[in-house]
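Reopening this one. Same input as before:
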Amino acid sequence: MQALAKAGATPIAVPPGVDGSCTRQVLEQVDGLFLPGGVDPHPRWFGEEVHPKTTIDEELDALELQAITCAVSMGMPILGVCRGSQILNVALGGSLIQHLEPGTINHYRPDLPLSTEVHEVRLADDSRLAKLSGTQLLRVNSLHHQAISRPAPALRVVAQSEDGLAEAVEALDPARWMIGVQYHPEELLNHEAHSSLFDDFVSACSEFASKRRGTA
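Same output, byte for byte:
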């Protein structure tokens, strides 16, 4: 919420437990959807049984799946971080790796401050993220034990870690502002490559609001 406020937004938190009609009413009053980090999406949404390491919050799933469906239908900008990126992919028809064992990179580093840059990701040169970051190689933090497996049909992978995991997705349709990142840019705001993501999201939300009011 601090990162969004710093970029000029007025964040409004919506708690789990509200019904679908209430979620729609809230989204009709705001200009963008931000999906934060958290526990794991239920694997039933992509046709798998629960892994022993998977931690689930079904009320949170219900809220975010409803919110994503509404936001997509409205053409609203969407930004997802960590779990937010995963639930966005699941909501749009993709799947997840339920648990990552440490390999070339240990992606789950709760022993380190989130301001620590753990590894590098390579950005697709034609991606919005590359344009915002001004680079194709980006140093990021890491605190996830799940990752995107099959990208949703409406999304494309635009960043990968050195071991080949998807680290960011964007909408296939370049006219849609929809980005999910597996890392936590809100903890790296001292780097312009990360703060620019929030600035661009808020700018897209402002443009969406103007179009909705017919003043663009």
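So the earlier flakiness isn't reproducible anymore. For the record, The radius of gyration is 16 Å.
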